[in-house]
Amino acid sequence: MSLSTKEVNKIAWLGRIAIDDDKIEAYARDLSGILDFVEQMSVLDTSTVTPMAHPMDQTQRLRPDHVTEENQRGLFQANAPLVDAGLYLVPKVIE
Amino acid sequence: MQWETVIGLEVHAQLATRSKIFSAAATAYGAEPNTQACTIDLGMPGVLPVLNAEAVRMAVKFGLAINARVASRSVFARKNYFYPDLPKGYQISQYDLPVVGKGKLNILVDGEVKTVGVTRAHLEEDAGKSLHEDFHGLTGIDLNRAGTPLLEIVSEPDMRSAKEAVAYLKKLHALVRYLEICDGNMQEGSFRCDANVSVRPKGQQEFGTRAEIKNLNSFRFVEKAINFEVERQIELIENGGKVVQETRLYDSVKDETRSMRSKEEANDYRYFPDPDLLPLEITADFIAEVHTSLPELPDAKRDRFKTHYGLGDYDATVLTATRELADYFEAVVAEAGADAKLSANWVMGDLSGALNKAGLEIEQSPVEASRLAGLVRRINDETISGKIAKQVFEALWESKDSADDIIEKQGLKQITDTGAIESIIDQIIANNPEQLAQYRSGKDKLFGFFVGQAMKATQGKANPQQLNDLLKAKLQA
After folding, report:
1. Which of B46, B54, B243, B307 is the most exposed place for a label (fewest CB within 10 A)?
2. In a domain, A71, yes or no
3. E-strand spans in B268-413?
């Protein structure tokens, strides 16, 4: 399996990762190599195997519906680059 | 050409849990920004989500109520996209293994019952809120809502008109409130709806290209937005254009749908099972236990209202539209000890009318069920006439007095004493010889004149039937 430079660019965009143009081909080659490695597994017939949702053979534990978290806004917002009126401020996004 | 409309709805119902779906932060509406967002909601490194048992119970409740299969094993998946109000860069949702499978809802449209399929319902977390108002050219982010449990309920494309879509939505709205799994507040966004709308030539099998309409926060807007969108699509096609698959926003002020800036690339969410969460197992015992906790559901209640109270289909449907209204009605009937139909008429008529006018819900009614029952009781035992009852009702609305107190204080007791009514009639006849002569010479319409005079003389308190009978006899004598 071989990834095109277009696909590499798309993957980078989806992950919001900046990559240099002169490295795209190298990424395409390396990523294709990884995919080829994984591809070897497709020789196995998995039609009767239930897809694994989690490597641990356990089920989800549930939590009772109790509020135990307290307001720690001040503490959390101390890390934020910009806040105003209790809000986190980010560059303008308009959909 | 004849066109057919095809509609499917996606509803997000906020589950009425106290804490969030994966954290122990509060879900209460209207708190100061970011005071209910903990490290898990903020997507801090190293935290782990833990699923809220109550959210699961509520989803199961819903599944059972729509006769759906509840999955014994379901899986949470990450839906990846970047947006500032989604701190983790993914939303925890469910993908190919949702908690609730195929179910159905019956709706009533123009007297016909129609079944609408529910494709699935899955659990997921809500995102935060972006505020685009003036923050020095920046966007403000409030993450209080992030992590609030949602049940996304997806319908089949089974609806064929805006009216059907609204009927389905109202039915669903009533159901989640009956089940007490969602408060149904559309203004606060607890019950949100997106509509997938397309048109196709009548008789054609395949679906046309659909547009998804967002921002529908009232039943009225759902109807208006769909109607606008259907018109737009038909006009577009008839003029040689093509509908493009896109997301459109409904603008209630202009009453139109507008294309949201079309995304250059189709969404690519790259769903995969969330490694932070193990598969959710729901045992048969748990399902059975939830089953026994189910309240009487709207359809069952409607049927019982028909058989038990002898109400017609329409009355029974209206009175069971919400659990609160049904409870109110039953409280009135129980206390009034009268014909259920009379109670139904008062609840659906004068009371609902007054509530509507005042913009109040039944649970906010200034007239409690017990006081309305007091009024119905006095109509039923003929202490007051139906006409006077309206006057008493107004006083009930304005004060905290009982119907009996109002009747007593205002002297509204109906006059049923034959002798008293007769003497009033005699007086009127004596005072109006001219009208009497005209009446006797065949001018039947003047009967109304005499009734009016008698009612005026008794301030409306004469028993109408008795008055009619006595008057007729006297005039013909």
Report:
1. B46
2. no
3. 272-273, 280-281
A79 in a domain, yes or no? no
Q: Name chain B contacts of A73, Cβ cutoff 8 Å.
A: 32, 34-35, 37
CB-nearest to B24 from A67, A86, A89 is A67
> Model pTM?
0.82
User: Among B53, B325, B360, which Cα is nearest to B174's?
Assistant: B325
Cβ of residue B94 closer than 8 Å to a chain A Cβ = no
- Would an 8 Å CB–CB cutoff place B117 in contact with chain A? no
The complex's ipTM works out to 0.91
pLDDT in tens, B17-36: 999 999 999 999 999 999 99
The answer as to whether A50 is a domain residue is no
Per DSSP bridges, beta strands A62-63 and B51-52 are: parallel
User: DSSP string covering B46-95, please?
Assistant: T----EEHHHHHHHHHHHHHTTPPBPSEE-EEEEE---TT-TTSEEEEE-
Cβ separation of A59 and B278 shorter than 8 Å? yes
Across the interface, do A90 and B142 touch by the CB < 8 Å criterion? no
Within 10 angstroms of residue B46's Cβ, the number of other Cβ atoms is 5
Q: Which of A10, A60, A92 sits opposite B280 (nearest CB)?
A: A60
Summarised one tens digit per residue, pLDDT across range B146-166 is 999 999 999 999 999 999 999
> Per the structure, how many domains does chain A have?
1
Look up the domain containing A9 and give its range.
5-40
SS3 call for B279? coil
B72 interfaces chain A, CB cutoff of 8 Å: no
How many residue contacts between A and B have a Cβ separation below 8 Å?
129
For residue B303, what are the CA distances in angstroms to B67, B308, B317, B345, B366? 18, 8, 9, 18, 29
> Measuring CA to CA, which residue among B461, B175, B222 is closest to residue B322?
B175
